[in-house]
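Sequence in, structure out.
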Amino acid sequence: MTQTRSTPVTVVGGYLGAGKTSLINRLLHQQDVARLGVLVNDFGEINIDDGLIAERGVNTISLSNGCVCCTISDSVGAALDEVLKIRPSVDHVIIEASGVAHPHKIATYGQGWPGCSLNAVIVVVNSSTIQAQSGDRFVGKLCVEQLGQADLLVLTHLDLCSDGAISELRAWLRNHTDSPLIDAHTLSMSTLIGVDKTETRENFSMPHVEFGTAHLHYANAVSVDQIRSVLGELSRSVVRIKGFVSVGESQYLVQGVGRRLTVEATDVGGHGLVAIWPSGSCDPRHVNAVLAQLDKSVIPLGATAS
């Protein structure tokens, strides 16, 4: 079965001051990530080095590393159309949600807009203020709702918190969401957006050394339902799963970020399945045992037990 390639979309949300712009800056300034199309609310908030700007237009800035930054002037849909027309085409689209927006509403564009597919909803959390904000009578409800809409939570400003406060924060967050938590400083860009669909396992970018991984050279299943069922057994600490699974003569691309898992038929040649988690956050033996249901040969890479 052949499917037209869709462009994956990641939504970055979080309340005002959480650090969304800083995270997007990291994406824009890295030379080794995919060619990104980044939709932002205001160019003025994005600190782009002049030396990185190749061309500046009314609503777009083209960067020398191949990335393109576009403003959301009238609507998200119009901005998506604009960035999808760019040639050569972008590999991945990042949408910055307003600090007072519900990220899942923006995510509907990734799910239903022509030429797009939703990769994940990332919510950035200011570790030093989120608990106080959640109790605010004006914005508290919104802040908590944003947490519940995330596939992955990225924690910023942890350096402003004591060890005790961080433990308390993690326990508090667990009462509001079961999404994985990651320190923004250790977040790998390959973990966040994955790698291009046309790459085979041998070309996959390996994650930061502070992440544990498990890898299958070849993964097989009897049905798509089995793929979803097996991978659904993985610990919530697994923040990324990416690769290919064969079902008979058909090939399926599997992508998971946090709680979100997509399985789509593809004619792209490739093999291998990789699971990634913050080191010490789960037992590598559990991950290996789950993946072993899709293949008898599991090769753990950099997996460390706490």
